[in-house]
Design brief:
The protein is mainly beta and 612 residues long. Helix content is 7%, strand content 44%. The chain starts with a strand and ends with a strand. This is Porin.
Length: 612
């Protein structure tokens, strides 16, 4: 009988019987049932069953050999439907000549190929040059990488460490992600999902300060797709999409169906030319202000291995639409320029003598000047959210240096804030203010593969948006001009790897906002005023008494760890525990009161990573 296993036809019978299937590591996805012609004979079916039994025996033998020899990631081959990871081609065939090199997912899709080498050797080398920086980022062994200071499987989706699943023409496709179940306990009730609103911990006047909350969630479940093609051996085109379920549409609730919606985390395209050392990114991605483990290329961000979707206070980051240009000099020196989507968080409330009037929140109380500084969304923007009036993109210019023991970065940030103002009976005037800051990041391999130190800092004016505590960027002057608030954001961390299957971390961070005030009519206005009556912030009231305190500092201490429980052809399983203690300090009031509050947050998390 003439059975065939072709690179582009799957499993086929001369009479047309097929059993296409897709193998993702040890996961089998059936793409259809067996179709047998009316003339198929019983002995044909018996021989087919015998062949399938022999295939399963061979697969088990291959797994034993892989485990015995510790085979590493490299070029893929498919033998009897089983993906093998090796450093070269099987004997008797190359990337396209082997009779068992690739299997199609569906027989009638000629451009869709499952498994096997998806790019030419030159193209694979170019893609490796783009995505593989060091062994600490993409592991040399076929297991979860916990050696990095920012393990991709935890902080991102680990998609770069995975072999291609299939190709569409000359484009390789990698799948990444995990199923997440997090149990969250907070000592104070924030009514917050798995992204903690760090700046919202209530003072004693709120009844929520006297009760905790428990909130299990699967919203951190994350999926990603990485598409790559290489026009030449020096060029690589990539597209990356990453999503989770952190969206909360108007119908989302936790009463019955917990129908929280998918959202864009990242969606961008890149072009990389390794000969020129030139790289371009366009789309939504982590800001260039975010630290990096090495270089300045996407998906190598220095993110803390924490569970919370809002990171921890002191980390500098945003995820925004942008266009970015990177030049590397021998993969050691790096220079990057990014133009990023701006937004401004204004602090307009001055407390009991508010900067803006209570009846019309667009009028400055001290001068009667009418303001316009934000608008409700329309079109494809959220109509329930306010969007600032922006005059130019945020601009980030960053330089980086890679050495064997450490990675260093320094950068500058430029921003512009705009508001429209009209004095009583006067003309409408546009006011624009400049803001920005300088920052730096460092990652040091204190004990290579066992202990790393990381640190970051950003200082300047109008930078509150870049911290997880979401301190305000700016307030206003009496004439309606935006007044950027002085701020500093910083953190330090230690990441340890006592065993290959265990990662532990310790972080401390701080976000501090300075004063930006003016005096009129005998009162202070702006941010950081010190003539407010704040003693009511400590008065317990079930109805929630008034508290006009303005935050000047958020500080946190975080400790946690991840345990790699299982890994095999079936994927990987991890569990993590995280504890964060937060303290919030307000500016002192005119009555001598200095409100403070704090709280504890505990995460217990389980993750299944099917593609690892």
């Amino acid at each position: 009988m003439d059975y065939c296993w072709k690179v582009d036809r799957g499993s086929c019978h001369p009479d047309g019987a097929r059993r296409p299937r897709l193998l993702l590591g040890g996961l089998v996805v059936m793409l259809g049932g067996m179709v047998v012609s009316d003339g198929a004979r019983a002995d044909d079916m018996a021989e087919i069953r015998a062949l399938h039994a022999e295939m399963r025996r061979l697969e088990a033998k291959v797994e034993q050999l892989e485990a015995h020899h510790g085979m590493t990631h490299g070029t893929q081959h498919v033998v009897a439907g089983r993906t093998l990871r090796s450093g070269g081609h099987p004997s008797g065939g190359g990337t396209s000549g082997s009779s068992m090199g690739q299997i199609t997912a569906m027989p009638d899709l000629s451009r869709l190929t499952i498994g096997g080498p998806t790019l030419s050797d030159d193209a694979q080398a170019a893609a490796a040059a783009e995505n593989t920086m060091t062994e600490s980022i993409v592991p040399a062994q076929p297991r979860l990488d916990l050696d990095s200071s920012s393990p991709l499987a935890i902080t991102q989706t680990g998609v770069d460490s995975l072999p291609p699943i299939f190709r569409i023409g000359g484009v390789s496709v990698r799948l990444g992600g995990f199923i997440d179940f997090s149990n969250i306990y907070r000592s104070k009730n924030l009514t917050s999902g798995p992204a903690t609103s760090w700046g919202s911990f209530p003072y004693a006047n709120s009844p929520n300060a006297h009760t905790g909350e428990y909130r299990p969630s699967a919203q951190l479940t994350r999926l990603s797709v990485l598409l790559q093609g290489s026009p030449t051996k020096d060029e690589t085109l990539s597209g990356y999409i990453e999503t989770d379920f952190g969206g909360a549409a108007g119908t989302a609730n936790s009463y019955q169906t917990n129908s929280y919606t998918p959202r864009i985390r990242q969606a961008y395209m890149t072009y990389s030319n390794t000969k020129w050392g030139f790289h371009v990114l366009a789309g939504q991605a982590w800001s260039l202000t975010t630290g990096y483990t090495q270089g300045l290329l996407s998906r190598h961000e220095q993110l803390p291995p924490v569970v919370d979707n809002n990171q921890i206070p002191g980390i500098v980051f945003t995820r925004v639409p942008q266009i970015r240009f990177i030049k590397d000099f021998g993969r050691k020196w790096w220079l990057g320029l990014s133009l990023e989507a701006p937004q401004v968080a204004y602090a307009a409330n001055g407390g009991s003598h508010s900067m803006l009037t209570g009846t019309d929140d667009d009028t400055i109380a001290s001068s009667g000047t009418t303001l316009l500084y934000s608008n409700a969304g329309s079109g494809m923007l959220n109509p329930n959210a306010k969007y600032s009036m922006d005059v130019a993109p945020d601009i980030v210019l960053k330089g980086a240096l890679d050495t064997k023991p450490a990675h260093y970065e320094i950068y500058g940030l430029a921003r512009w804030f705009k508001a429209m103002a009209q004095a009583p009976n006067g003309p409408i005037r546009e006011h624009v203010s400049f803001a920005g800051g300088v920052g730096g990041d460092v990652t040091v391999h204190v004990i290579p593969r066992y202990l790393q130190f990381t640190g970051n800092v950003l200082a300047g004016e109008g930078i509150g948006r870049y911290g997880p505590g979401m301190l305000p960027d700016a307030t206003f002057k009496a004439n309606g001009t935006p007044a950027p608030i002085p701020e500093i954001i910083g953190s330090m961390g230690l990441i340890g790897h006592p065993t290959p299957d265990l990662l532990v971390y310790l972080y401390g961070g701080v976000e501090h906002a300075g004063r930006r005030t003016y005096t009129a009519n005998g009162y202070q206005y702006g941010y950081g005023v010190n003539d407010l009556a704040l003693s009511s912030c400590d008065v317990e009231q079930i109805s929630g008494g008034s508290c006009d305190a303005q935050t000047h500092t958020l500080a946190d201490l975080t400790v946690g760890g991840w345990w790699h429980v299982l890994q095999g052809g079936y994927g990987a399983v991890m569990t993590g525990v995280q504890y964060t203690y937060l303290r919030k300090f307000a500016y002192k009031g005119g009555d001598g009161a200095s409100p403070t509050t704090g709280g504890n947050t505990i995460y217990v998390t389980f993750r299944y990573l099917p593609f690892q």
